[in-house]
Amino acid sequence: MTSLAAESNAAAEAGVITPAGASPRPLKKRRKRPRFWINLVAIVFSVVWIFPVYWMVNTAFKPRSELLTVDPLFVPKHPTLHNFDVAINDTTFLTNLKNSVIVVFAAIIVAVVLALFASAALSRFRFRGRRTIMVLILVVQMLPGTALLIPQFLIFNQAHLLNTYLGLILAYVAAVLPFSIWVMRGFFVAIPAEVEEAAWMDGASTWRTLRSVLFPLVLPGVISTSIFGFITAWNDYIVAYTFMKDSSKYTLPVWLNSFSTPTGGTDFGGQMAASVLFALPVVVFFLIIQRNLVAGMSAGAVKG
Predict the structure, then answer these.
(1) d(CA 292, CA 290)
(2) Cα separation, 16 vs 285, whole angstroms
(3) Alpha-carbon Rg of the chain, whole angstroms?
(4) pLDDT of res. 127
(5) φ, ψ for residue 14 (rounded to 5)?
(6) What is the pLDDT of residues 104-127, one digit of tens each?
(7) Per-residue pLDDT for 2 more than 60?
(8) N or C: which end of the chain has fewer CB within 10 A?
């Protein structure tokens, strides 16, 4: 009896509850089992997700003799930088890179500024038709981009905006703006009304309240929509290829298609090296914005 009581006390101190007369069972072993399976499933999904990226990088460093082997080579036997040299020295690479940078950053700036004011109006002000506008924004967001391609092409053709930077910028703004407004509105709604009322009691005007109080608090939303807008515009192929007639105004996604021709076939090594170069700005941009995103969220939490 004494030993049984001692075991029960030890089990109680360890946080294990056992019925009377039963030997204590540690819960750690039972808890590890579901966690093990969750981690295993997460690892499997991570490998499946990252394998195409790995294969792209792997192919970019392969010489031509190792590209079309019967047995797949998961590690290049003779790695080379020749494919990157071919991609970088392509005559249209720098031109298309300049086009992408101009169009994408201009579209992000315009979309974020418009979404910032529109989401502030839809969340902090009461006016007739506000709910209708929100429903329309949601409906537009649900429409696939390819369904709007032909109407946009006809409108831009009548407005003489085809084969121009301005037309492509407006097309990207139209694609990014509904989602940006919807996301930023959530950040504005999360701000307590007392913050805004305190600014008004201190004598701040509506514009001063927006500029000095509300806008700094929604900085995480601005950064989040910037990431979405950058990725959407940077990766677009079909709009740039449809709206731009002059090859000197193509963007990088269209440039990637130049490595595949009907007569010469596909240069897989050069195309994969070009894809790596194409993906690097997205990775760098995300890493920079991610650090600012954490800082912005912390600042917003302190000010709120």
Answers:
(1) 5
(2) 49
(3) 28
(4) 82
(5) -80, -5
(6) 999 999 999 999 999 988 888 888
(7) no
(8) N
What is the rounded distance in angstroms from the CA atom of residue 229 to the CA atom of residue 208?
A: 27
Kindly state the tokens that stand for 283: 């990775």
Give the up-direction half-sphere exposure of residue 189: CA atoms within 13 A in the CB hemisphere. Answer: 10
3-class secondary structure, 250? coil
**Which tokens in the block code for residue 277?**
């170069």
Which residues lie below 8 Å from residue 167, measured CB to CB, with a gap of 6+?
A: 156, 159, 161, 243
* Alpha-carbon separation of residue 88 from 59, 91, 96, 270, 272 (angstroms): 16, 8, 11, 10, 12
Q: Report which of 200, 48, 212, 186 is spatially closest to residue 115, judged by C-alpha positions.
A: 186
- pLDDT at position 293 is 59
Q: What are phi and psi of 251, to 5 degrees?
A: -100, 175
Burial of 82 (C-beta count, 10 Å sphere; 0-12/13-18/19+): middle
Number of helices and strands (H, E) in the chain? Answer: 14, 2
